[in-house]
Design goal:
Layout lengths: L21 H10 L4 E4 L6 H13 L4 E11 L5 E7 L12 E2 H10 L3 E4 L11 H6 L5 E5 L7 H11 L2 E4 L12 E3 L6 H9 L5 E3 L6 H26 L6 H11 L1 H13 L3 H22 L2
Parallel strand pairs: 1-2, 2-4, 5-6, 6-7
Antiparallel strand pairs: 2-3, 3-5, 8-9
Helix pairs in contact: 7-10, 8-9, 8-10
Length: 295
């Protein structure tokens, strides 16, 4: 399994994108018969590092591949996703939004396997011309259950460009694990990455489109988790020890994208009475709200 997300993955619209712990994702892979997996959280290797400690302690025979799904910027400033794999997780230290040329150059220097994630999709799309241009991309993710209809087209393009082909479940919850896998021969991490790069990897797909039920459940659970975390944040911001003025300042700063004009007006104002007019109602309302939601 080459494409897994844990709760360390953060989304573009909702902060918490993955729903499960690294340990639970590994256990689900083992339960479903996988010999190895890559944790590929969005723009972080924290999930992998935690999974690594778990695997070393509990399942040393399970092959865990260091990975990351990185947001990279094209020359047009559009964002696309690269799946990066390396024997040494230290070689996966990239910044979100780095220029693709810089990422590919560093990846080549560090012998990092580079896979274009869900190419030709309508979100974070790699266009054909871009895939032809960036020859340092090693493989295309020809099977991703979110874009199954594009599989024949992507497979054809991979063959045309002489790229390796991989599959991944792009799992963000336990229900999503096990839809597809990439079969690779090799007994070591070095052999696995070498054989993936040399296009010696057949793909096994267990079903076509991702089933609707687990996707809907993921969306619902994701919204619920984000709602609960926001409530926790509000609860921390509001307490009996917080002065009303500080409370209003925190809320204005926290929601600056909504209240930016108001914030600027308040910053310019030196009249403490104006702060009090805003601070006391906000403090009272949020304190009552936090009491209700934390019952």
């Amino acid at each position: 399994e080459l494409h897994l997300h844990t709760f360390y993955s953060q989304g573009d619209r909702l902060k918490w994108d993955g729903l499960c712990s690294p340990e639970d994702m590994i256990l689900e892979c083992i339960r479903k018969g996988y010999d190895g997996a890559a944790i590929t959280d969005h723009n972080t290797t924290k999930g992998f590092r935690r999974a690594q400690r778990f695997v070393e302690k509990k399942f040393p025979e399970f092959l865990l591949i260091p990975g990351i799904e990185l947001d990279v910027a094209l020359p047009s400033n559009s964002i696309v996703h690269l799946l990066l794999y390396n024997e040494d997780v230290e070689n996966l230290k990239f910044k979100r939004g780095e220029r693709i040329e810089e990422v590919l150059d560093k990846a080549r220097e560090d012998d990092t396997l580079v896979v274009a994630a869900h190419p030709l999709s309508t979100y974070n799309p790699f266009k054909r011309s871009q895939l032809r241009k960036f020859d340092k991309i090693d493989c295309l993710e020809v099977y991703n259950p979110f874009i199954f209809s594009l599989t024949p087209e992507t497979e054809k393009l991979a063959k045309e460009l002489g790229k390796g082909m991989v599959a991944g479940s792009d799992a963000h919850s336990l229900d999503m694990v096990g839809i597809a896998c990439t079969i690779v021969k090799g007994e070591s991490l070095e052999e696995i990455l070498k054989n993936l790069r040399e296009r010696e990897s057949p793909i096994l797909v267990t079903q076509g489109y991702r089933a609707v039920t687990p996707v809907l459940k993921w969306f619902k659970d994701k919204i619920s988790v984000n709602y609960e975390r926001i409530n926790e944040l509000i609860g921390k911001l509001v307490s009996g020890e917080i002065e009303p003025q500080n409370t209003s300042e925190k809320f204005v700063k926290r929601f600056h994208f909504i209240l930016n004009p108001l914030k600027e007006a308040l910053v310019r104002s030196e009249r403490i009475t104006l702060w009090k007019l805003i601070a006391y109602p906000v403090a009272l309302e949020t304190k009552i709200y936090s009491k209700i939601v934390t019952r």
